Structures are given as structure tokens and as C-alpha cells.
Amino acid sequence: MQRRAFLATATAAAIASPVHAAEPHVLPGDDVFVAETWRELAGRTIGIVTNQSGVLSDGTSLVDAVRANAQIRVKALFAPEHGLRGDRDAGTYVPSYTDPRSGLPVYSLYGETRHPSARMLDGIDVLVFDIQDVGARPYTYMSTLAYVMESAKQYGKEIWVLDRPNPIGGVRVEGPVLDPAFKSFIGLYPIPERHGLTIGELAQLFNDHFAIGAKLRVVKLRGWSRDMLWADTKLRWTPTSPNVPYAFTPLVYLATGLIDEGGVNNGVGTDRPFEYAGGYGFDAAAFARTLTARGVPGARFEPLDWVPQRGFWAGKTLAGVQIHLDDPHAFPNVRTAVEILAAARAQGKLHINNAASFDRDWGTNTVRLALLNGASPDAIVASWESGLSTYRVIRERYLLY
Asked: What predicted TM-score, i.e. pTM, was given to this entire model?
């Protein structure tokens, strides 16, 4: 769902998790790399796959930190969707260019190609990947990771993944496991919508279970535990893409990022994208009552109206709900997407105009067909369990924390 806008909220503190007995002190893998493991690359040349989210715990970009070390040779930078600075809109073509700050070539992995080519990798020994994930299968940075690993394998390069926290935690897994028939750039492998892995763990899963077979090194996090959300890490949040401005955003990304192809507006075009769910002509009070009656753990649904400033609905008054999280640890974001779509169906407002896009987002056609056939949210969620049980067994082999 990189091509969609995501939810913003007032502050990350507003959804902070319960206070732990001791303040956690988490160091991302790039902190560990810059302080220690870079020494293993002495005399070798690297390329860095990164964007604005590739920052150390003090806010320094990995590129700046590495360039300050005269013993590390950097040959090129590689940028995913949204570009090196994260300033390009979702789905927008990203060109290659020379970075004026570093003087290094920046090769786009969201332009003419999505795989690093032999020419791009010429003279590079090791690719270093440092991009923040949001814990969701449709986020394209993880597909970029897989494609970079494939090129590393093809051209005989090593790849080092500098691990980062999963901002929505590493405990819960949720949603349908992708049907390979619906493989796309927003879902390459049969994993669920909410995968419950760090990017380093994902890299191991991709490399081993899905048989990429690259020469992979994961530089582990320090101080992170699986039950931590981003707020628990005490790290500063750097927006991962233009419309993921807060640490709250990934928590509800899968709750409303999966509804827009069902004809339900998710706040796109407002200053709080993905915080809202509703549309033109919705009965906001009835919509809120329906969702509240469903007892979604950790969530409250407040009726309200809003007017998008951008996009298809610009200037029109829409009605629906705003999502508030009282207990983000308990919040089932993918189930909530189903609850919202079913509540829209109850108002006669479920409109799936592009079945292919809806199915691509969900990685299956079963959710669409179940909704159209009148299935309950409980039945739809229950249908995922067999695939999730198999996935949990596979996932267990790749957990680092």
C-alpha cells in the first residue's frame, strides 16, 4: 500500500504503551554497524540501499555517518519508492541522479528497474541495506529488499541488512497469507498482511525459506524485544514515506490501507490520512455504533465529518469515524479492516469497482468474495487461521529476538 497515503495522528505519545519497569534502550543495527561491525569491511567497497529513514539513534543518517569514516569506501547509493529523501509521492517514478550532498550516484530501484543491475553494482563488494519497515506485507520497501538480495545473489555480492525495530511489534501475526496467484510488488511471498518480523528476520526468511540464496549478514538490534511497539523503543520516529509521519501510522496502516478499494475513504487527502474511515453519504453515528458493537480490542470509533483537501474527494464533506487506540498492543489492525468493510456493507456503501486491485491489496480473492456473499467478519477472520498456523511454524525458525 505504498501507493496510498497513510494515517497520521497528533503525537506518538498519545498512543504510548504502558510504561515498562525499566526504560528500554534500543540501538538499531546501523548504530551497531557504525560503532563496531564496519571493521569487517576494511578494504572493501560498499553500496548503501537507504532513504531518509536510515538514521542512527541520534538522528544521523547512515550515509553521513559512513562518509565520516575514511576507512569505509562507498561507491553508490540505491533508493526505493519515494526516493532517497522520501520526498516523492507514492507510486511516482523515481529517477537516478547524482546526490548533491554526497556527490555519489543514486541509483533508483523504483524507476526503469527495480533490481540493481550489473552496471550499478560494478566495483561494489557489499550491499548494505538500511531502511525502516512498517511491519506490513504491502509496504514496498520489503519487496525492494528481496530484489536487492536477488541481484546480490546473481552478481556475487554480499548483502548486509542493518536490522531495525518492527514498529507494530513482533508478536502478533494477522491476515490472510498471500496466495501466490496474487503475487505483485506489494506482496512477493506467501506471508500474512501483518508478518510480525523485523526486516532482518524477513531477510532471513526470504533468503532461506524462499530460496534467494544470497550471501547474507544481518547486523542485529540491541535492546529490542518482540512485545515493543515503536513508542516503547524511545527512538525518534523518522517518517518512512511522505504520508507516514508518525510512529502511530503503522499501527493503523493495515486497518484502513486495505479498505479504499472497497469504496471506503480512509482520510487520504487530509492531514490525517488513514485515521478516518467512511465516505460520501455515510451515516457517521450508525457507522460508529456498528463498529463499537463489534468490540474491536484496543480501539474506539468516534463519529465525525471531514473534507479532503486533495485527491478525488477534494472539497466534499465525508462522514464516518476516526480511529482512536486505547491499547495499541491489543489492536488487531487487519481484522479491523474487515470490520470496517462489513460495516460499510451494512449501509449499502461497499463498492468494489476494481476487483483486481482489491485482491492485489489483500493477496487473495477470498476476502472480496466473502464480503460480497454476506459472510460475517468473524467467519472471514477465522478463515485465515489455517494459513497463519503454517506460517507461524515457518516464522519461528527465523526469529532473532
From this structure: 0.92
